[in-house]
């Protein structure tokens, strides 16, 4: 799960990291009011940033400065509703504009191969790190945190010096260590600060000081670990989740869309994988991975059917259920209900074995479903049905 910049920054603040203040606004007048508060507090300018779950907002025109409340309102009005790489901007972050001296890059990422946390830092901040990796790979410093002790002071100092942050050593060490603590505290896969910036600030006595701050923040959380962190689910942005992902999550289904034509409804992740393999072997292409889970009842089956049918590419459906905790007759009942409601008529092949398979078979026969005894047979029939539908579609 990707977090919006403002939410990612809240987590950083909770871990004691230096982040400039901000407010989130949903309308241009709200942005103006926020800007006026920051300007009254002594800011020369404010920064207005699109909140969308995509990088490169700056280049796309989604990050702008404004010097007055009226200008902030106008700029926010331009950014709100803007399309950035397919995402519509629905909110903006407003904060005092930073006077940037230099931009750096610093991130903590889960390194699966090394089974640990990898820190990546660079003095080439503000630009896409992938570009730096391509054009100037030596400019990226890499270092692993200790698996038990986290990022140790000496390692953090080594990283800071290598990044050219010797003049801000104390702050750089605290931030690097803070990224690792943040990763661990929330089970994040990625905590990225780009830019980590040296900014110039004027104190109340008029003297200027330079300070290291996290100007942007990107955090990706491990979905499978969300159950360990009760409050974090609330940070999911409903505006930016694909509708089918949302439906699947709410119905308790594991659903991954693919680009084939045969919709698959299966119980159990392993069986779902095997079913997809067999569809491929029979010459077809699965339209999705869908695990309805153990003990699925009729309503869950109906929800799964709706998800499958919502994909216009689906022209055949293969249902493969191995009844254990899941009762075959419950699934059959669910299929009958789903078909009664469905808006689109798609050929379906059903294979149900295991618990209450006999009762399921009787129900399916009465409702005139096409059934199959073995998985190979089911896959072959589904592929044939999909081909026939595809040809029919091509002719029509
Ligand atoms: P991204 O493009 O989506 O990564 O958004 P960022 O938050 O990283 O902003 C992009 C760029 O805008 C940064 O690299 C900065 O150069 C610039 N920027 C962001 N915030 C400020 C700010 O407060 N003041 C100034 N002067 N520039 C900023
Ligand atoms: Mn950035």
Q: How would you describe this structure in keywords?
A:
single chain; 396 residues; alpha+beta; D-amino Acid Aminotransferase, Chain A, domain 1; Dna Ligase, domain 1; Rossmann fold; 3 domains; six-stranded antiparallel sheet; four-stranded antiparallel sheet; 37% helix; elongated; binds guanosine-5'-diphosphate; binds manganese (II) ion
Beta-strand fraction estimate: 25-35%
CATH architecture of the largest domain: 2-Layer Sandwich
Looking at CATH, the homologous superfamily of the largest domain is ATP-grasp fold, B domain
Largest β-sheet summary: 6 strands, antiparallel
Distance separating the two termini: 42 Å
Rounded to the nearest angstrom, the radius of gyration is 27 Å
* Strand/helix succession: HEHEEHEEEEEHEHHEEEHEEHEHEHEHEH
């Amino acid at each position: 799960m990707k977090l919006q910049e403002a939410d990612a920054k809240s987590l950083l603040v909770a871990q004691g990291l230096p982040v400039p203040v901000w407010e989130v606004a949903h309308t241009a007048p709200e942005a103006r009011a926020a800007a006026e508060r920051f300007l009254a507090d002594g800011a020369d300018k404010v920064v207005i940033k699109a909140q969308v779950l995509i990088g490169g907002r700056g280049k796309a025109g989604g990050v702008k400065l404004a010097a007055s409340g009226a200008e902030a309102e106008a700029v926010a009005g331009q950014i709100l509703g803007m399309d950035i790489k397919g995402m519509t901007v629905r909110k903006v972050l407003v904060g005092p504009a930073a006077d940037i001296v230099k931009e750096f890059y610093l991130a903590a990422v889960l390194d699966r191969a090394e089974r640990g946390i990898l820190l990546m830092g660079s003095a080439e901040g503000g630009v896409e790190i992938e570009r730096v990796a391509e054009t100037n790979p030596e400019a990226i410093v890499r270092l692993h945190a200790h698996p038990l002790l986290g990022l140790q002071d000496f390692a953090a100092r080594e990283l800071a010096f290598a990044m050219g942050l010797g003049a801000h050593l104390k702050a750089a060490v605290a931030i690097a260590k803070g990224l690792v603590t943040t990763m661990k505290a929330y089970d994040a896969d990625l905590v990225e600060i780009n830019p980590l910036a040296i900014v110039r600030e004027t104190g109340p006595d008029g003297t200027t000081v330079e300070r290291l701050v996290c100007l942007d923040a990107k955090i990706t959380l491990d979905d499978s670990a969300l159950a360990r962190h009760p409050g974090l689910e609330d940070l999911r942005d409903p505006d930016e989740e694909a509708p089918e992902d949302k439906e699947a999550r709410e119905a308790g289904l594991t659903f991954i869309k693919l680009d084939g034509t045969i919709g698959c409804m299966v119980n159990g992740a392993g069986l779902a994988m095997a079913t997809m393999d067999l569809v491929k072997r029979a010459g077809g292409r699965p339209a999705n991975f869908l695990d309805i889970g153990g003990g699925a009842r009729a309503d869950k089956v109906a929800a799964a059917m709706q998800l499958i049918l919502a994909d216009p590419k689906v022209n055949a459906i293969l249902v493969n259920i191995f009844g254990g905790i899941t009762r075959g007759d419950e699934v059959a009942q669910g299929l009958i209900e789903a078909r009664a409601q469905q808006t689109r008529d798609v050929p379906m092949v059903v294979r149900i074995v295991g618990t209450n398979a006999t009762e399921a078979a009787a129900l399916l026969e009465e409702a005139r479903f096409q059934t199959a005894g073995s998985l190979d047979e089911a896959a072959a029939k589904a592929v044939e049905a999909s081909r026939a539908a595809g040809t029919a579609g091509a002719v029509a």
